[in-house]
Amino acid sequence: MDNKFDFQEDKIVNELNNRKTKLALLQLPEGLKKEAIRLVNYFENNTNSEIIVSGETCWGGCDLALDEAKNLGVDLLIHYGHAPFMKKVDFEVLYIEIEDKTSIKNLLEMSIKHLKEFKKIGLVCSVQHMHQLEETKKFFENLGKEVIIPKKKGYAYYDGHVVGCEYNSLKLISKDVDAFLVIGNQFHSLGAALSVKNSIYLLDTYNNEVIEMSKLRDKVVKQRFAAIESLKNEKKIGIIVGMKPGQKFGSFKVIKKKFENAGKEVIVITMREMSNDKLINFYDIKAFVELACPRIAVEDHDKYEKTIVTFKEALVAIGDMKWEDLLENGFL
Q1: What distances in angstroms separate CA 120 from CA 111, 172, 266, 288, one per listed residue?
Q2: What residue ranges do the domains of the chain occupy?
Q3: Beta bridge partners of 133
Q4: Running DSSP on this structure, what letter comes out for residue 38?
Q5: What pTM was computed for the model?
Q6: What pLDDT digit, counting tens, does each position of 17-33 carry?
Q7: Same fold, 105-212 and 217-329
Q8: Which of 3.40.50.2000, 3.20.20.70, 3.40.50.11840, 3.40.50.10700 would CATH assign to domain 5-98?
Q9: Per-residue pLDDT tens for 187-233?
Q10: Of 287, 329, 276, residue with least CA distance to 309
């Protein structure tokens, strides 16, 4: 059993029994699939439910296994590791957010020297650390700092909650704080660094260190500039429309027309999961605009042999936005 997280097994047992669930689909994030057999045994031994496990990838609350659940005819989808993301879902979903039980006291002490020059700090976290926000806020207030937890906006489910694809809650208070502190992992802190111009510090509970994100941000920004310039020079463009219900960013009709007006040849391609092998099959297309999760183009840059940009970056390539607009307003 992974002792780092609280899997709330008894809560799920109660839900299954109260709902009289006969068949459920269990969906786990990639790093937690190792717990699948233990959880299935526990649930089936303590309920009258049969549990099937989704073997497909799961990258966030945007990535619900709705098609699988419907095709299997299950009564309930148990989705681990994320807060509700989509506003409307036409299926019974039980979200189990999972608290990270790791103490952050040592990390808070380590962070003092990094944040000593800042008087006003914006504080956010991934959903696994929501229970530690108030502890962190009080810690820095006792040091004489003003701490602001932003109100939820966009896809965030709680005040102070950040998701990987957009950071509008941070943008709300970016002018009111000197720096942001992110509790969680590099994925969310890099997203913050690409969204606001403030200094970003990560309280990394996975590697037990405090990291300032500017170097990684600068590296990624250079990669994004190169990708946009590469797209500008290509005559054939593929537009990838994501098939996951929670991963739709931008209109393919809008961007397709803009590229065609610029004299480029364009095709629209559907994909549920992007991979380098799939892109290679379109051998005569060297550049793609992906309208699924914007972090695919940003995070997985080194995985692909071909150029991939987001909807916003495509607008820069086509001349509808300026590069400076991305730098000023954020890539996400």
Answers
A1: 14, 14, 47, 41
A2: 5-98, 105-212, 217-329
A3: none
A4: H
A5: 0.92
A6: 999 999 999 999 998 99
A7: yes
A8: 3.40.50.11840
A9: 999 999 999 999 999 999 999 999 999 999 999 999 999 999 999 99
A10: 287
